[in-house]
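User: Here's a chain of 292 residues. Predict its fold as tokens.
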Amino acid sequence: MLIALYNRTFEEENIPFLQRLIGMLEEQRLNMVFFREFYEKLQPHIRLQRTPPLFTGKHDLPRHTDMLISLGGDGTMLDTVCFVGSSNIPIVGINLGRLGFLAAIPEEEVEAAVTSLVRGSYTIEKRALLHLDASIPLFDGAPFALNEFTLHRKDSSSMIKIHTYLNGEFLNTYWADGLIVATPTGSTGYSLSCGGPVVFPQTSSFVITPVAPHNLNTRSIVVPDDNVISFEIEGRAEQFLCTLDARTESITTHVQLAVRRENFTVSLLRPDEHNFLKTIRQKLYWGIDRRN
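Assistant: Prediction complete.
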């Protein structure tokens, strides 16, 4: 079994945990491939039985990798989606960050998680992605996102108008600071913080949520993900921001944009004892009465 290890924000306080994790993987006789920058920072602190192979991105991540372990928070998990792309390599997230909604395995459960991975006691969830079609090249050949697509004003001068269409039919003009189109996976992220609903990951839908809308009766709407959502932008400024997850591009009003469901999915691997309902109870504190 070949395990890829990725971390983007190396913290010295995590060294003891990383030493323990890598030691467990070696004890299980698992082969490892490291993200190059991560390995270079970690190398002075570990002793491996042999020098591991390294990767720098999607072009040299071995296609026969059995799973990719993301070590960090949700932002780190979103990075790995670009590495994996359509290869269908399962991703498992170990949370070294704060909330860890996607990277749901906490440090204290890593021993049990590794045992589950080795024994095959896990579930692979297929998560839908969204795809951005644009009239100019954007996002360096990876125009897809696991969480959300957004449009934003670039400065603080004034709101923008976003004319939005479903399969070419006019939906609404959003007078707002921006607009979010979230996948079911992304419904618990930025969209939720702007008043959007929580949507189960298996739901075939998009959530359209305005950011600080001028019209207070404008709310989120859930639409089937077989729709193509297209946009026309107006504003006093010439430049606007377009994002896919944590990646950002600057665009003008002349750029044509449309969002649709991507034609491949990403596989998230979780131990059997973890599921979506447990995650939202623990991370969103559902049902917890702070008065007690």
